[in-house]
Amino acid sequence: MIxxxxxxxxxxxxxxxxxxxxxxxxxxxxxxxxxTASLPPxxxxxxxxxxxxxxxxxxxxxxxxxxxxxxxxxxxxxGFTLGTEVPQSAIIAVIMPDLExxxxxxxxxxxxxxxxxxxxxxxxxxx
Length: 127
Known about the structure:
By secondary structure, the chain is mostly helical. The chain folds into 2 domains: about 55 residues, no CATH class; about 55 residues, Alpha-Beta Complex (Aspartate Aminotransferase, domain 1), CATH 3.90.1150. It has 4 helices and 4 strands, in the order ββαααββα. The strands form 2 sheets. A two-stranded antiparallel sheet has the order 1-2. It is globular. The termini are far apart.
């Protein structure tokens, strides 16, 4: 089982757990991508609180899912290339044709007050 806290509950970090006998291979092969330090207590407390609110807030999950479907449909209607044909989660991948257009879109959204994660492997050029 894997999960992320940065995209799901508004904190940082994530997890990968298993009792599968070959799990150790994953840990060894993916070592450059795995950070094994413990999360700070404040991050754990924030993630725990967010998860509890989501567990008991069925209307919030339904509202998030409706927003995700509406955003996916709107982006598709505007002609954006998306990572999936139908919405599958609250995370929607928008595929940009090149780095410059992607960076321009990222900056425009930031200027409008909307925080959008930029892929860690490709940082936008400085402006």
